[in-house]
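Sequence, please.
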């Protein structure tokens, strides 16, 4: 590649690509996107895929520049075509939403898959969702589970919750309430509001776990604070069976930091 040849001709004491990228990331961490873009710009024009992604992301999120989705798509396309997994994932999001490009779910799916196959956890999570929901792609429960497991192994809490739903609804697997609760707990303990809602519901109903209204309310309170619409389906019913002191106890527990993941 030409940019590698050019770098090879530079003096040995000149900063390497990795050094420059690290400097740019540090600037962006401080919120100094103007400085980061000053560094990423020459690298992106020289063909460094991750720098191209980062410029595209800045145009997409209006970080240091005015939001320009057409330019975002341009830079992300270059990054994606060079094989950068994050560039592929970010470009997939543009095709999914129809921002800067014509909406194209099939193209989004292909890009998420390309990134997922390179091990990108958020892409694996999104691919799993698309294959499970069946709204923008043909449903494939086995593949949805495979990618959810891959994403969950990398700590993606929404994929943990999704695995719980697969076992709860018997989608491509035997129905297993205990397995569903195990996955919901993993997602809930990592802050996924939907997982917290479903774990609260399981404690409310005694499905896959011993019934415990107080524990149910603790998780439903956390879920509601996290914005999950699922919590409202059970919230009032659980609250109605609790005494005032139990409600107060639950509110104190729900306001405390989440317990560390149990597994």
């Amino acid at each position: 590649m030409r940019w590698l040849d050019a770098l090879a001709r530079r003096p040995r004491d000149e900063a390497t690509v990795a050094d420059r990228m690290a400097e740019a990331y540090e600037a962006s961490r401080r919120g100094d996107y103007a400085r980061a873009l000053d560094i990423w710009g020459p690298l992106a024009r020289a063909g460094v895929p991750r720098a191209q992604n980062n410029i595209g992301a800045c145009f997409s999120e209006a970080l240091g520049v005015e939001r320009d989705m057409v330019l975002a798509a341009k830079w992300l396309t270059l990054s994606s075509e060079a094989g950068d997994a994050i560039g592929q994932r970010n470009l997939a999001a543009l095709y999914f939403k129809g921002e800067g490009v014509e909406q194209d779910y099939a193209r989004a799916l292909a890009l998420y898959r390309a990134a997922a196959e390179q091990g990108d956890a958020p892409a694996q999570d999104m691919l799993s969702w698309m294959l499970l929901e069946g709204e923008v792609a043909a449903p494939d429960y086995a593949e949805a589970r495979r990618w959810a497991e891959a994403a969950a192994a990398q700590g993606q809490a929404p994929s943990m919750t999704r695995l719980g739903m697969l076992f709860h609804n018997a989608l491509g697997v035997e129905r297993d309430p205990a397995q569903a609760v195990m996955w919901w707990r993993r997602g809930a303990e990592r802050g996924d509001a939907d997982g917290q809602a479903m774990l609260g519901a399981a404690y409310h109903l005694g499905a896959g776990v011993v019934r415990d209204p107080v524990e149910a309310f603790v998780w439903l309170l956390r879920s509601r604070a996290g914005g999950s619409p699922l919590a409202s389906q059970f919230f009032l019913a659980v609250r109605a069976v609790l005494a005032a002191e139990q409600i107060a106890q639950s509110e104190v527990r729900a306001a405390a930091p989440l317990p560390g993941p149990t597994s």
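The two ends are 44 Å apart (CA to CA).
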